[in-house]
Write a structure and sequence with these properties.
Shape: globular
Strand content: 15-25%
Number of helices: 8
Number of domains: 2
Number of strands: 10
Strand order of the largest sheet: 4-2-5-10
Largest sheet: 4 strands, mixed
Order of helices and strands: EHHHEEHEEHEHEHHEEE
Helix content: 25-40%
Length: 281
C-alpha cells in the first residue's frame, strides 16, 4: 500500500490550476492552426489567427486564456493500492482550487446556493470531482476547467432505442447549430451514448479529454464521428459564430452499455479554449 498525503496533492494541484488556465494544450493549439490554414472565410480565418495570438499571449504573460476560468472539474483515477493520508481527497482538491485560483488571480465563478441567494463562494469551489478506482498504486488527476458559455449549450436526450445513427446525428448537429456563437466556436463536441440518465453526460464531458481529432478505436464510431463533424462544419456557423467552414475541430464519442429500453444521448460542448492538464502522483 502506497501513501500520498493531502498536502502533496494540494501543492501539486494548485500548480496544475495555473497550467490549465494559462497554457492551451498543444493538440488544441495545433487543431486551431490547421483550421486557420483551411478556413474558407477570410473573417473566420482572421478569428482563428486571433485565437492563436491570444493563446500565445496567455502562455507568455501567464494570464488566463479566457476570463471565464470556469468550474474546476476533476477526473481522478485512484489506484486501489493508494491510501490518502492527512485528510480527504475532496478537501485536498477544494483547498488546491482555492489556492490556485487566488495565486493566479483567476476569476471565482462558483455560487454557493444555485437558486436563491447565489452568493459567490470566493474560492471557485467546491470543485466537481469524478472518481474512478483503478488497479495499481498511482494517483492521476486531470483538471478540466469548464466555462459557462459552452456548458450552457449542452443537451441531453432520452431517445427511443429504435432510433438509429441518423437520429442521433441529427440531435448532435442540431445542438451545435442552435448554440451558434454562444460556446465560442470552433468547439470540440463531446458525445456520450448509453449508460443511463446521469452516465451519458459524464461520458460526453470525459470525451472532451481525448486528443483532438483522435478517432474512436471502433471503426464504426470513428466513421460516425467523421460524418457528424462534416455536417457540423457544413452548417456555416463558423469561428465565433461569424460564418465559415470551421464550426467544430472534432467530434468525440464515448459509449457505455445501457438498458434495452433506453438510448441516452448527451452532448457537451467545449469552446476553442479546451483547457485541461494532468499530473500523476
Amino acid at each position: 500500500m502506497r501513501s500520498i498525503s493531502v498536502d502533496t496533492i494540494q501543492k501539486q494541484v494548485a500548480s496544475l490550476c495555473l497550467t490549465a488556465a494559462f497554457d492551451l494544450p498543444q493538440d488544441v493549439h495545433q487543431a486551431i492552426a490547421c483550421a486557420a490554414e483551411k478556413e474558407a472565410s477570410p473573417l473566420g480565418r482572421s478569428m482563428l489567427n486571433q485565437l492563436l495570438e491570444n493563446a500565445g499571449i496567455a502562455a507568455k504573460e501567464r494570464v488566463p486564456i479566457c476570463q471565464d476560468t470556469g468550474v474546476a472539474v476533476f477526473f481522478v483515477e485512484l489506484g486501489q493500492e493508494v491510501a490518502i493520508t492527512g485528510g480527504t481527497l475532496q478537501e485536498a482538491l477544494t483547498k488546491a482550487v482555492a489556492q490556485g485560483w487566488k495565486e493566479g488571480y483567476l476569476r471565482a465563478s462558483v455560487v454557493e446556493d444555485p437558486l436563491f441567494t447565489r452568493k459567490n463562494t470566493g474560492i471557485n469551489g467546491p470543485p466537481v470531482v469524478h472518481l474512478e478506482l483503478v488497479p495499481g498504486d498511482r494517483l492521476t488527476i486531470t483538471l478540466a476547467p469548464k466555462g459557462g458559455g459552452s456548458e450552457n449549450m449542452s443537451a441531453l436526450a432520452m431517445l427511443k432505442p429504435t432510433m438509429g445513427p441518423d437520429a442521433i446525428a441529427d440531435f448532435i448537429v442540431d445542438t451545435v447549430v442552435k448554440a451558434g456563437g454562444n460556446p465560442c466556436p470552433p468547439v470540440i463536441v463531446g458525445v456520450g451514448i448509453g449508460g443511463n440518465f446521469e452516465m451519458a453526460p459524464y461520458l460526453a464531458k470525459k470525451a472532451l479529454l481525448r486528443h483532438v481529432g483522435e478517432p474512436h478505436p471502433d471503426s464504426r464510431y470513428a466513421a460516425f464521428e467523421h460524418q457528424v463533424l462534416d455536417r457540423i462544419n457544413a452548417s456555416g456557423v463558423g469561428p465565433q459564430g461569424l460564418g465559415g467552414t470551421t464550426t467544430a475541430m472534432a467530434v468525440h464519442v464515448e459509449t457505455y452499455p445501457c438498458h434495452m429500453a433506453s438510448m441516452p444521448v448527451a452532448v457537451n460542448l467545449n469552446c476553442h479554449a479546451a483547457r485541461h492538464a494532468t499530473i500523476e502522483l
